[in-house]
Amino acid sequence: MGRTHRRMPAFKGSLKLSLATFALACIVVGTFSFQYYQQLQSTIRAESGGYLQEIATRIGANIDRTIADNYSFLHTVSSGLHTAQVTTFSRFAAVVEAQREGWEFQDIMLIDADGKAYASTGEPVKLDNDAYFMDAVSEGRAVISNAQMIDNEERIALSIPLENITMDGTPMVAMAAVYEPASFDETLSMSSFDGQSFSCIIDRGGTIVVRSSSPSALELGYNVLTTIGQSELDQDDSLESMKSSMAAEGKGQIGFTIDDVRYYAVYTPIAPQNWYLLTFVPASVVNARSDMMLGATLLMCGVVTAAFAALVAFLLFTSSRNRRKLEHIAYVDDVTSGHTIQRFYDLAQQSLSATDRPRYALVYTNMEKFKVLNEQFGRRSCDDLLRMFSETIESGLRPGEYIGRQSADNFCILIEFDGEPWLRERFAEWYRIAERFLEENQPQWNLPIVEFGIFVIDNDELPFPQMIDRAKLALRESPQAIGGKIRYAVYDDEVRRLLVREKQLEDMMERAMLEGEFQVYLQPKYRLPERVVGGSEALTRWVSASEGMIFPDEFIPLFEKNGFIVTLDLHVFEEVCRTLRGWIDRGLTPPKTSVNCSRAHVKSKNFLDAYRAIADRYRIPERLIEIELTEGIVMEDSHRLIEVIEDIHEAGFDCSIDDFGSGYSSLNMIQSIPADTLKLDKIFFRNRTKDPARTRSVVQSIVSMAQALNMDTVAEGVEYEDQVDMLEEIGCDYVQGYVFARPMPIADFERLAFGEETNEEGEER
User: Fold this and answer.
1) Residues 288/290/295/296 CA torsion (nearest 10 deg)
2) CATH level 2 (architecture), domain 67-181
3) 500-754 belongs to which CATH class?
4) What residues does the GGDEF domain cover (predicted)?
C-alpha cells in the first residue's frame, strides 16, 4: 500500500497565514474605514452645524433689526410728543392714529409712575405682574417683556422711558408698543430644509416668549429647556453646558431625541438681554445626504482607494450643492430673482477693487407711492412690476455694473459715472424701456414716478450702507425732474452740512423763542404818487445770542417743514399788535401793517381764532392789520382759499395775495378771489434791462385787473427809481423795496414813519 503525502500542517499553516493576513487586512481596512468614517461624520456634522448657525444668526439679525426699528419708532413718537406739546389723551390718540399705517404692533400704551398702563385712547390697560418689565419701567430703562397677559390677551410689550410727558394731568414715565406674539412669525419663518425646520424665541430661563406657527413645530410646553432636559440628549451634549453658554450670552448647538425623532437645536442671543432664538431642524433632514454618502463609503471599504475617491467626490458634490443652496438664499432675491443687497455689496466691491477701473457712482432708486400700488393691485402684481423693473435696468448695465434689491421697491445700482448728462440719459432710457414693456404686456398699468439718488464714489473705503444713506439724503434736497416721470439728485457734502445745520437750528429754536431771539422787523410800503410811508410788512429776524444774526432764508423753510412756523407766525402777530397798541396809545396814526400767514396755519380750519383773540386782547381796530397769503396757497385749493379770505374779513382783517406772478396763477383765477391787496412778486423787477416794455405791459395788465376788482396793488422788491416811475405811471398803489427802505427794527421804523429817517439795513423774509 502506497503512502499518502499529507500536507495538512502546511495547508493549515498557509490557511492560518491567509486567514491571519485577511483578518489583519480586515482589521486594518476596518480600522482605517472606521476612523475615516468617524472623522468624516464629525466633519459633516460640524459643517452642517455651521450652516445651521449661519441661518439662525440671520434670523436673529432680522429680529434684532425689527426690534431696533421699533425702538427708533417709539423714540420718534416721543420726540413728536415733546415738539407738538401733546398733553391730552385725545391728542395722543390722534398722533398714534396718524402713525398707525405700516405698524407691526397692535397699539401704543403709556405707563405712569405707579405702573398703571393706558391705551392710546386713555382707557386703562390691565397688565400682568411682570417684575422684570415693571422694574425696567420704574428704573427708566428701555425693555421688551416676555409674553404676558395684557387685557386678558397674550401680548409682548416693548417700552422706552419718557421724560416730561404728562397726559390729562398724569405724568407718564414710559411708552410701550404692544405686539401679538404671532407678529414675529414672518421674521421667524425659514425657507430652508423643505419647511421641516422651525424657530421660537425664549428667555434665558427657557420660558417661551414667541412660539412658532409652523406645521412642523414640536409641542415644547411652557419651558423649552425643561422639555429638552426630559428628552434623550446626544452623547457629547449636555443641557448644563447649554445653560452655561446661554448665561454667558454665547451661541451653540445641542442634539436630542424626542418621540423617536432626533433634532438639532441651534441657539443664538438676540437684542433683548434675556432673549434667545432657538432653531430646530430634524437630524434626518440635515444628515440625509451625508448618511447616504457614509453608507456608500462603508459598502466600498474593501476598495479603499476607489471608495476614498468616490467619497471625496461625493463630499465635494454635496458640500457644493449645499453651499449653492445657501448662496441662493443669501445672494438671489426672492422677488426679482436678481441680486440681494449682500450679493450686490460683494460684486460692487470687486468692481471698486479692480485696477484701472472707471469712476463709479452708487445710485439708490425707488418708486413713488409704491405702497399705494400694493394696496391697489396686490402684492403679486407689484412683485411682477419690481421684477420687470430690475430686469430692465440689469439688461442695460455694462460689465462691472450691478443692481441689487435692498427692500420693498428700493434698489441699489453701481454704475459708471461719466457726468450727470450721461446718467440722465441712462435713467430716461431705462424708464422708456420699462414703460414700453408695460404698454405691451400690462396696458392697465402706469409706471409710477421713479427717484434716483446718486452718490459719486471718490472714497472706496466708505462702507456701502453709508454710501446708500448719502444717496438717499440727496433726494431730500431739491431733486431735479426729467420729463415729469423721473426725479434725481446728486449728493454732495453740502447736503449733509445742511441737514446737520437743520438739526442744530431745531435744537435751538424753542429756547430762542423763550429768550426773545426772534425779533420783528418792519419794511415800509411807500404810497404812490406821494411817495410817503403808507404801510409796512412785518418780517422776522433771528438774533441769536451765540451766533448773531440768522437770516430767514436759513430757518423759515425749516420751520415750514417741522411746523414751528405756526408758533413763529403767532409770535410775530402778537408783536405787531403790541406795537400798534403802543402807537395808538401815544396818539399816533399807525399805517396798515401786513403779517405773513404760512400754509401750515391755513390748513387748520379754526386758525383765525388765535389771531382774533390776540387782536381783541390789544384792542386793535378793524382793517389795521392785513394777513398775507402766498400765491402757492391760492393754487392749492381756490375754493378753500375763498372761505379763508371771507373768514379773515369776518375777523376784522384785510387780506393780500403775496408773491403774485411767482407761480402759475392767472388773472382769470384772481377774479374769483375776494382779496383786498395784490402784491406783485419781485420777479417782475429783478432784471430791469431785459425787455422793459414787455415787463411794463404785463405789470400794467395786472394793475388794471386789480383796479377793476377794487384791489390795492403793491410792487415788491423794487430797487430802482425808473421802476418806481413806471409803477407810478401805470397806477400802482404802493412800492416796497430797497429803493426806499430795507427791513428795519421797530424803533427805526417809528423814526422813519413818525419822525426822522433811518438807514438800518436788513434782509426780507
Assistant:
1) 120
2) 2-Layer Sandwich (3.30)
3) alpha beta
4) 358-493
